[in-house]
């Protein structure tokens, strides 16, 4: 997600705290919210007393540092092969078939399109793809302003049936909650940006 | 049934599950002595009476107790036993079994160590059922039932079984491997009296669904059919005809290839089912078909168990509502349900006793369990995405705590989660002190209490202190020797203990071996337990079924010493490629009256006392 540049004219947003940060740091703070659950422990070997990095009192990993992905341990978690094999392809199927293909509509366009969200690594790529697909410009996202100044704004319907502005939540959360996309005219988007 | 038997100097008290009867055998019966003055019998009853009484005993434990009273009782018990349970196929040989029990109709046989389910045992390890079948064909030609778990079963064996046992009725294969659907075809073709075919979670080569069509047209005896875990399509016409003509069919669990539309037709044929495993639940019906399915479910007044439900979505779950009020066991462990969807369904299931779900339901879904299922006794929560740590989902301690407040009768839990606290576990067992099976898997190895950063010792301390009936325990998280001190101190009824990535020193394992008097199965992986710990259990292993230790600190010398000191134990070591010569990477120790096994593959070293 592109970092926000503070605009001089404050719109009345629900998040009123001023934040100074370099472009691109916005996402770190959002990840922090969910950091508590990302409590990764090093493998037991690294906890030995003699270990160079030995920290006998286990701590949360620093929220800024995402630990390197662990190698999978044989036979752990203890799940029967049958269940493992039948769930993995199924999850992929479930994602491909049900969750990750979403319809995209655009105000004024006669046809809907369908895209596979898992193809994109993050918001910038998704937005560029939408721009290409519908031959329009969406512009820059900012937390405070949304897509102010853009001709169009991407919105999505989430699991609760609410219409949200694309970019408000972390990408992973967006992936698991997005039901469909709708590109609306920029003028309508201002309403979304004002504490909706 | 409580039978209190007095025989001269000794008595045994046996617990079985039926009604109460008291028999007293009060020593030499004067009447008998008058009629049979030359009788040298110590028992006042003729054999036939004793055998008749003993034949009422069902539980293997009771029968073992009875057989130890005296020689007459041993013989009478041997002659009256019709079902034999062999928990470790290498603890005894088929010849020894046949010598002792001349009239066996039903055999249950378990093979590989449980960790083979998690790929920790080499594939060619053993546990081939064939040598057993060969002996049975001669000694028990009237064998009716065979239940196998973690055995290797080939197609040849299945065919051998099918043609050599004319009275064969019940085949149950659970977590077995080595066979294909061809073997099932042989069973279907030849077993004229088959009543049960239960094929669950096996490593089967699924060539085709044609086996189902092999049941002859005049075959009508089937009562249980479970092929839920097979993938290939079966001929639906053949299935429908089979279900129609088997009027006693009570359990039917079909595979994914059976569509909802076809399920409706099966239900119409078999409204008296008590257990149903659906096929695919993909929402693809027309309005009329949906209504017909609902009607069909409405006719099934006896359904108490439901499973399958692949690809079920919230849209179609309401079709199940007619049967939900009588459901006692609901297996949703292959269904990706969210919390609200589960909640809606559970509101209809007030009588639920057993529930299996995926962790996609989240803590919110488990709150719904607590709110709607006060009779719940068993809960299993499986991870939908066990290997992906980046995704933040699944269940936490909050979910299980919520269940414990609402389901006070809970006594069996299997719970996969990514975070847990000592306080939560203490609350859970305080609410549900009757746990007999407590299997907690914190998926990140060695993870501490995520709030306090302390080890999870106090959690399991609370479990063993509070749950005096605990029989089975699986521990996880960051654990020091203190956990094992607690277990040894309090878990006096514990029979099975599973440990992974835990403990600080030999002392931990020692405490368990010293304190858990009823321990039968101990399986340990990736723990810092070494020879001192292994050898501290020298005298205990003969009272246990087996010990498994892998990736611990046990050496070959330690194992050799154990084998030398305890000749009636089989001590087997499996080495990993590239490991140190002195390390005993995987150790499997078990008591046996059959001696070291002769079919061990090269990767399994049998250490003898020599």
Automatic annotation (TrEMBL), chain A:
Locations listed in the record = Nucleus
Show the segment(s) annotated as Disordered: 15-73
Q: Has keyword Nucleus?
A: yes
Q: Which residues form the PB1 domain?
A: 99-191
Asked if the record carries the keyword Nucleus, the reply is yes
Which GO cellular component terms are attached? nucleus
The record's comment on protein family reads: Belongs to the Aux/IAA family.
Q: Which PANTHER family does this one have?
A: AUXIN-RESPONSIVE PROTEIN IAA17, AUXIN-RESPONSIVE PROTEIN IAA4
Protein name, please? Auxin-responsive protein
The upper taxonomy is: Eukaryota, Viridiplantae, Streptophyta, Embryophyta, Tracheophyta
TrEMBL record, chain B:
Residues folding into a coiled coil are none
Annotated GO biological processes are: auxin-activated signaling pathway; pollen maturation; SCF-dependent proteasomal ubiquitin-dependent protein catabolic process
Q: What pathway or pathways are given for this protein in its record?
A: Protein modification; protein ubiquitination
Signal peptide start and end residues:
none
Could you tell me which InterPro entries the record lists for this protein?
A: COI1_F-box, F-box-like_dom_sf, F-box_dom, Leu-rich_rpt, Leu-rich_rpt_Cys-con_subtyp, LRR_dom_sf, Transp_inhibit
> Main localization of the protein?
nucleus
Task: Please verify whether the record's keywords include Nucleus.
Answer: yes
F-box domain location, by residue?
A: 45-86
The reply on keyword DNA-binding is no
Determine the domain of life of the protein's source.
Eukaryota
Pfam families of this UniProt entry?
F-box_5 (PF18511), LRR_6 (PF13516), Transp_inhibit (PF18791)
SUPFAM superfamilies the UniProt entry points to: F-box domain, RNI-like
Q: Which GO terms describe its cellular component?
A: nucleus; SCF ubiquitin ligase complex
Which Gene3D superfamilies does the annotation name? 1.20.1280.50, Ribonuclease Inhibitor
SMART domains linked: FBOX (SM00256), LRR_CC (SM00367)
Q: Where in the cell is it found?
A: Nucleus
- Keywords annotated in UniProt: Auxin signaling pathway, Developmental protein, Nucleus, Ubl conjugation pathway
A molecular function (GO) term: auxin binding
**What name has this protein been given in UniProt?**
F-box domain-containing protein
